[in-house]
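INFO batch 0412 | record 1 of 1 | parsing
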Amino acid sequence: MVLAEKREILLTATGIDLSFKNDETGEVNKVLSNINLQIRNIVRPDITQGQVVSLVGLSGIGKTRLFYILAGLEKPDNGTVLVDLDQHPVMPGDVGIVTQNYFIFPWRKINKNLQIAAEKNQEYKSKKDIDDAINQYAELFNIKKYLNSFPDEISGGQRQRVCIVQQLLKGNKFLLMDEPFSGLDFRMKDKAIDTILKVSHTNEYKTIIIVSHDLHSTVAISDTIFLLSNKNRETEGATIIQEIDLIREGLAWHPDIKRMPEFSKLIQNIEDAL
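INFO prediction complete | emitting tokens
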């Protein structure tokens, strides 16, 4: 029985290189080297659900730089990033981003921040469409009671959910999340995981790309994992050393995955590889 099938190409990164020059020494330090990855749409029988793709690596390896390149916010020295079903070159705004800072206009109430985001989505034809969409997402992500609050009046976890709703209202099929579990305790990590899974259920083509060094939380909700490392390489610069298909491994979509012996073994294998 086929549980899922990978079909249309949604994102392709080819030959990504990135270097920085040290102004004091003049030395050129390579950060990323020949990054190649491809994300395909996952089709599951009788289920409308997107996917969670994770990019994991040690702190300081270059994950955040790759994050901005995939979002179209930073130009690599070499290589291309193509997105969506038509595989066009990524441009700023094609990919929704949620960074650790959770930026929201501080002088505007949450509802106004969300209205501004929704106005960029051409699918909404009227103010009623926008208001209905805001209320729908606010209900789904438990932020309805904060709509009349200012950003500095709510917690970091609540701001994270507001930022996610912002990106969903814009209509982005891709949502890049930079270290979504950073600084969270176990209870808050569980809430963040629940939020990410809710996002993946909003649309079949919705693809959440998580950039993180938190292996346990990230692996537990992923469909596909890419390992970024420069271990055992003669040249500088991190690259994708392995793609792990958790669907093929039989580890995707298990609510109690962290209790499975295969999960512990996979975590150990990833730690050894990185």
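INFO post-check: The domain at 49-76+86-94+172-273 is CATH 3.40.50.300 (Rossmann fold).
INFO record closed
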